[in-house]
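Course assignment 3, question 2. Fill in each field.
Student: A.L.
Task: Predict the tertiary structure for the chain below.
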Amino acid sequence: MISTLLLIALLAATFVGFNIGGSSTGVAWGPAVGARIINKTAAAALMTGFVFLGGWTVGRNVIETLSGELVPQSAFSIEASIAVLGFIGLGMLLANLYGVPVSTSMTAVGAIAGLGIATRQLNWAVVGSIMVWWLIAPVLGFWAGAFIGRYLYPHLDRRVAIQQSAGPLLVLDRSGGVPRPALGPGTTQRELLSTVVVLLIACYMAFSAGASNIANAVAPLVGGGLVDPNEGIILGTVAIGLGAFTIARRTMESVGNDLTDLPLLAATVVMVVGATITTVASWLGIPISLALATVMTIVGLGWGRATRPVTVSQLVRGSGTPVTVDSLTVETGEAVARIGDEAPEDVVSGKKLFKPSTVVRFVVFWIIGPSVATGLSYLTFRFFLL
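Answer field:
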């Protein structure tokens, strides 16, 4: 019976990791795949490698938090581990059905917190520190995006806008005795550098995903002593990699196509900010959502770009500047106008990339998701498994 339960627990963890790989790979590599910088197979391979690196280094801190600090390790019986993983998988399923990027990390914390409340072993101080970061992350993402959008983005758009030429990026020059790589037809040094930067940032996103998400799949098993941290990281990496090579092929295409109206430069900025916030939180042992930071960074970036026609004093007085990312699709031109001198119509686009109601829906589900996971977990452990 024990071996059967262990097999079920391992399969449950693999299922969670598989779904994490499907969703996280799309977020990390969708823009690069959509821009035809890399193919899906290569993206999946790089995703798997950098997920392992993130989990093996920074991710250990998150595993430690979820497997022994939120509740004692003694609370993780094999049955409890299976139930917690089941609730995490259910939360991901509901999120996918509603098309909302509910955080796996937040759902995992909710499921484990329900176990802790039912057994009266929940460490409320750890819960408090985690929830503080859940409040800080979206605020930090919004204002980081707003600052970049208002003060830096137009200059980046004019100087380092990512443009692609037709044909291969690199070719082999066989004119000498030894073949060596050379720029492809029409490829410029700027295009090559931009492409390398996009690939490095996607690898950084994959590292961040591993740092924050491997724990969600394996922490209950580590807490229950079913696997050690090293084995858990390897199991989580294999499961996420499996998702990256299979179901993520669709999510990479979907995300890449969805972001075609959003300039690749804007997507790159959002990826850097979101991954940095997530990596820092993971280094501190805080399970946090990559979507939580990235969605609000998009909002902040667009709002900051849209506020350039008004001065700070006008903003303080309330200029009625809309919260929109539509302005990100407007080309900067040959010169960047000073803040306050740019005409409002110069940052208006006919494209509708963002609806405030969408972010409201996301925020509501960010609250509902962990709350439902906590409630269901508590009821299950309080009345059925204890």
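Instructor remarks: The radius of gyration is 22 Å. Residues 2-170+180-385 form one domain.
Grade: pending
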